[in-house]
Amino acid sequence: MENSSKSSCCRRCSASPPKESRRGFLTRAGAWILGAFALAVPSAIGIVSALNPLRQKGQGGDFFRVASLDVLPEDGTPRKFPIIADRRDAWTLFPNEPIGSVWLRRVGAKKVKALCIVCPHAGCFIGYDAKSNQFLCPCHLAYFDLDGIRTDASSQSPRDMDALDEPEIRDGKEVWVKFQNFQTGTPDKIAEA
Ligand code: FES
Question: Is residue 134 a contact partner of residue 144, using CB atoms and an 8 Å limit?
Fold first, then answer.
């Protein structure tokens, strides 16, 4: 009897270690996968952010030829224009690609006003509503007058549209814009690096 009981115990004892070992292995593997995932997500975000062409140094604050003065309506109606430039990531040069857009409006014979197209609230693209003759952000229905000033007291936008430096008129007819993006979601106008 004694022998039988002992051998039964030993069988149980000898069967237990592999089970614990498997559980331990699975726990360690799970922890390793979670750790690797936690490390990979911020790394991926950092890489994507670093490669974003609008965040690269040298893109913001440069002058770009945008349009001829004579294509801007004399009555001050705004027109949207793309900013075309060579875009470069870590490995490749992409010539003549759109890197952003601006609203231009003629405010004098040789004077133009430029507004950033990106909404200061959450970064949607601001359009022009011809019916009300105002700028309109379609995401949360924020209205701005033609100078980019908010016209609604309950506007979701924390600040007015971002005015760019006054464009230069070169050779008497070419409109050059100092292109710049600004941070969204803040009442302060802060240029992106
Ligand atoms: S993104 Fe323009 S009002 Fe919200």
Answer: yes
Residue 84: count of CB within 10 angstroms of its CB: 15
SS3 content of the chain, % helix, strand, coil (to 5): 30, 30, 40
pTM reported for the whole predicted model: 0.69
**Residue 38 structural domain:** 1-51
Distance 2 CA to ligand 1 centre (A): 82
Of 51, 72, 92, which closes a domain?
Answer: 51
Residues 42 and 66 in one domain: no
- The answer to whether 133 and 146 have CB atoms below 8 angstroms apart is yes
CA of 145 to the centre of ligand 1 (A): 15
Tens digit of each residue's pLDDT (9 = 90 or more) over 21-76: 666 767 776 667 666 655 554 444 444 444 444 444 445 678 999 999 999 999 99
Verify that 151 and 134 share a domain, yes or no: yes
Q: Does 111 contact ligand 1 (Cβ within 6 A)?
A: no
pLDDT digits (tens, 9 = 90+) for 70-101: 999 999 999 999 999 988 888 889 898 999 99
**For a substitution probing ligand 1, which of 140, 143, 154, 160 has the most ligand atoms within 8 Å of its CB?**
140
